[in-house]
Amino acid sequence: MASYKPVVVPAVPKLGEKVTQDTLYWQGYKTPVQIKEFGAVNKIDFSPVPPYNYAVTASSRVHIYGRYSQEPIKTFSRFKDAAYCATYRDDGQLLVAGSEEGSIRLFDISGKAPLRQFDGHTKAVHVVGFLADKYRIFSGGDDYSSNLWDIPSATEIVSYTEHTDYVRCGCASKLNGDVFITGSYDHTVKVFDARAKSSVMTIEHGHPVESVLLFPSGGLLVSAGGRYVKVWDVLKGGQLLVSLKNHHKTVTCLCLNSSGQRLLSGSLDRHVKIYSTTSYKVVHSFNYATSILSLALSPEDETIVVGMTNGVLNVKHRKPEESKEKSQKKRQPAYRTYVKGRNYMPKQEDFFVSKPGKCVLRKYDKLLKGFQSSKALDAVLEPHIRLYTPEVTVAVMQELNRRGTLRSALAGRDEKQISLLLTFVTRRVIEPRFTPILVTVADMITDIYQPVLGQSAVVDKQFLRLQEAIGREIDYQEELLEVLGMMDALFATLTKKKATYLEENKSNGLTKTLDQDTCN
């Protein structure tokens, strides 16, 4: 009896990814380092001065990490409850953080105990930061208020209560020491000037605002909320420039790279998108294990740190640039070294030993070998096969059809299995490489389960979707044939028929003969 031959899965060429300068630049990071924190990481902030340490706010602690350290080099834990939004001052000497109990604490990086404590909010303070003059602090809390504080006297300067919901994000202008911005769950972004008694500008984002970012020039403002990232022109009174919808879930954090030419956004969909600030198109994307809450990029883009909902801190360092001398590869053996002896012909006195190669069969091959058609089809309809390698599923269907057992494999299935089969066929039948066999499968399913139509709303809905998909594909094919006919007509009118050399000679010879006859 001949040995079983495994199912041959036809290879299909894949389109290569377009490699751009951004792809090379953002892929130049080492394997990430994972650091486990005590709770969800709600804020990451890099020190603006060397050695560029970064503060991580999670649970009731603020940890200070060195750029290459995996253990905190300093910890601020004087919080009764959760801490929020630990932010460095521009000189890197002071750190301010909000808290769940409503107080704001100011720390000296070289000490442990807080230098100042600001009390005035009645609920949790989720956003704090320094104004550009370095002597004042702004804050926003769940009591709907946005406050301004004086550092030397530890007193409240002014309190704005214009928001009608939680204030969860904010930033300060780096050019003007009196301007700061807050974003709220009331769908608005407000621009405040410490010299005015009320906000000087209100921008309607349309969704609860999770993060705001002001460009270094102060002319452009970015807001994130819901699935949208929106860019506003502050100098034109808050005019909307562009609205980006590249995430599938809520966008939680924003960040600019060191040059200000790339905008980064993190989302609960586990992705970090990188946009060009000129075209606002996605130039690269990072994928992470769980939902992202916070994001920070070090000066010169040397380190990218992402904080996630499960308390994991993901740290990526840029690979060092290798010198040309080190990057030169060692000389490899010549090609003939690897093929040496491949064409050797055994002599008469040689003993020829052949070792049969062991063929490891996959699950569906084992089932096919045992003539278990229905179970073999079930094996290739598993999610990891039908979603990521549909060519394997189609190859097994083709093999069953060749054997004549496809109809029996498709028959006798329950509502869930029929729905799964129809979903797969509906999704893949329009792909040219799968169309021939999947049309046969669709015909068989229709013939087998036509008597039970109307008994299950789920199955009926899948049949209608299949009908719509095939109808759309037929319409596309008809339109393409029409376009092809138009193009053929155009090419026919543009193409001129040119006489060949032989035809020219024949015509010339005939003309000469006629001329001679006329003369005679």
From TrEMBL:
Question: InterPro entries from the xrefs?
Answer: U3_snoRNA-assocProt_15_C, WD40/YVTN_repeat-like_dom_sf, WD40_repeat_CS, WD40_repeat_dom_sf, WD40_rpt
Question: Domain of life of the organism in this record?
Answer: Eukaryota
Q: Which Pfam families does the UniProt entry name for this protein?
A: UTP15_C, WD40
One GO CC term on file: endoplasmic reticulum
Tell me the keywords, alphabetical order: Nucleus, Repeat, rRNA processing, WD repeat
Q: Main role?
A: Ribosome biogenesis factor. Involved in nucleolar processing of pre-18S ribosomal RNA. Required for optimal pre-ribosomal RNA transcription by RNA polymerase I. Part of the small subunit (SSU) processome, first precursor of the small eukaryotic ribosomal subunit. During the assembly of the SSU processome in the nucleolus, many ribosome biogenesis factors, an RNA chaperone and ribosomal proteins associate with the nascent pre-rRNA and work in concert to generate RNA folding, modifications, rearrangements and cleavage as well as targeted degradation of pre-ribosomal RNA by the RNA exosome.
Q: Which PANTHER family match?
A: U3 SMALL NUCLEOLAR RNA-ASSOCIATED PROTEIN 15 HOMOLOG, UTP15 U3 SMALL NUCLEOLAR RNA-ASSOCIATED PROTEIN 15 FAMILY MEMBER
Q: What's this protein's name?
A: U3 small nucleolar RNA-associated protein 15 homolog
Q: Which organism is it from?
A: Anas platyrhynchos platyrhynchos (Northern mallard)
**Name of the coding gene:** UTP15
